[in-house]
Write a structure and sequence with these properties.
Elements (H helix, E strand, L loop, with lengths): L12 H8 L6 H8 L4 H4 L4 E2 L11 H16 L4 H19 L7 E4 L2 H11 L7 E6 L4 H12 L3 E6 L9 H7 L6 E5 L12 H10 L3 E5 L11 H4 L3 E5 L11 E5 L54 H16 L1 H21 L14 E4 L3 H10 L2 E2 L1 E4 L6 E5 L7 H15 L1
Length: 422
């Protein structure tokens, strides 16, 4: 169990972050000012190093969700005002986090997969299936969706393989992208291995050069490493708050470059225009005016769909506010510090982790039987998870420390790993 130096007496994120000062994060400062915001999860009797998987929520998250439910009890349909306001706040927070000036360019989704389908279905069709370039390292949902669309004859996929070590290279993606390509899709950080793909801007530039659209999966990037969507200038980005921004399942998003967002009008053949739509995409969704055409709202509102899952906006709020307040640069620096602490101690005990020079928030401990290793670690109080490299089939356990892990915990984690691995 991780202990705190004081009880959780304040839910004021801003004052907690002010207490940290402006310098690098320290364990003492985090214990004093930040740990009390997480008293519920810190009371659990385990060492949690699966922060790359399901992020640990703030105590305040439960209060935010309760406020949404209380409004339902108190106001019934009158709660829609609060709920829609929170949706817009969610879009604004996400826009700030990824460097967008237009919050309407953030389209709330329930998963990155839903966001991908929205893009695939919106792409203008020329002659035959849409031609997609994608890596073999994409997350299971993305991989599955691409293969289902391919099986239905809706797309063709040119797959980019990793090298012999399972790493992917921007140059290979660029080389696979030609004048026949309609969409280039790749992850900023590979979900299974944690590798951050260098020169992602070259992938985006190549797509633009040949007249294709670009889509970056940022699920393991946003909140963990600095990501500037406006500067990168990709056409689309997808991601979610399940992991590093502590927002739980269902709070995902699609970002669309504002230049691609038209004014209010009916979609026309040959347009980049959403098909995954519904009454919330209408210019006046609460007006219920029925017309003969399918006029959609202008901007990102035209990419909205049917009745949204309102609670996810409240669920994600505290984590997004916390991430923005503390700063991704500071979180990144501290995460790398903790990664190095663990890596050095594991190497000192003759355990050789897989550590990509350019990586996201986690590293790997290789294992020929990664699931058994992971289960044995959990039996001893160390919670992480197991994956296999999508291209080499090599197994490993993913290890991801975060600001709520103490050095004492990390030392114990090293002991547990070494004991289990013999």
């Amino acid at each position: 169990m991780t202990t705190t130096d004081q009880p959780a007496t304040s839910l004021d994120i801003e004052s907690a972050i002010r207490g940290l000062g402006d310098g690098p994060l320290t364990e003492d400062g985090l214990r004093t000012h930040v740990f009390p915001l997480f008293s519920r999860v810190l009371s659990r009797e385990e060492i949690y190093l699966a922060n790359h998987s399901l992020g640990r929520p703030l105590d305040r998250m439960a209060e935010d969700v309760r406020a949404a439910i209380d409004a339902w009890y108190a106001d019934m349909d009158g709660a829609w005002g609060l709920w829609v306001d929170e949706r817009e706040r969610y879009r604004s927070l996400m826009a700030r986090l990824i460097g967008l000036n237009d919050p309407k360019a953030i389209v709330p989704k329930t998963s990155a997969g839903q966001a991908l389908r929205a893009v695939l279905n919106a792409l203008p069709r020329k002659n035959g299936p849409i031609r997609v370039v994608a890596t073999r390292g994409e997350f299971d949902s993305i991989d599955c969706i691409l293969k289902v669309y391919r099986a239905k004859g809706l797309i063709e996929v040119r797959w980019v393989d990793g090298d012999d070590a399972g790493a992917f290279h921007a140059g290979d993606i660029v080389a696979a992208t030609d004048s026949e390509t309609d969409l280039v899709l790749c992850s900023q950080v590979v979900f299974a291995t944690g590798q951050a793909i260098e020169s992602i801007h070259a992938v985006v530039a190549r797509a633009r050069e040949v007249g294709a659209y670009s889509l970056i999966d940022t699920y393991h990037a946003v909140g963990a490493i600095p990501f500037d969507f406006a500067r990168l200038d990709a056409d689309f980005a997808i991601g979610g708050n399940y992991k590093y921004t502590r927002g739980g399942p269902g709070a995902a998003w699609l970002a669309v470059q504002p230049r691609l967002l038209p004014g209010a009008r009916e979609p026309r053949p040959g347009d980049l225009a959403p098909i995954d739509t519904g009454w919330f995409a209408r210019p006046e969704p609460m007006g219920f005016d029925r017309t003969d055409d399918a006029t959609l709202a202008g901007g990102g509102d035209g990419w909205l769909e049917s009745t949204p899952p309102i609670l996810t906006y409240f669920q994600a709020k505290a984590g997004l506010e916390f991430t923005l307040a503390i700063g991704v640069d500071r979180l990144r620096a501290y995460n790398l510090e903790l990664q190095s602490y663990l890596i050095d101690r594991l190497r000192g005990r003759n355990v050789d982790p897989i550590v990509h020079e350019h990586r996201g928030a986690f590293f790997l401990v290789p294992s020929a039987d990664e699931r058994t290793l992971c289960a044995s670690l959990k039996d001893r109080g160390l919670n992480t998870d197991a994956r296999r490299c999508p291209t080499t089939g090599r197994g490993f356990v993913r290890i991801c420390p975060d600001i709520l892990n103490t050095r004492e915990e990390l030392d114990r984690a090293v002991d547990i790993i070494c004991e289990v691995m013999g």
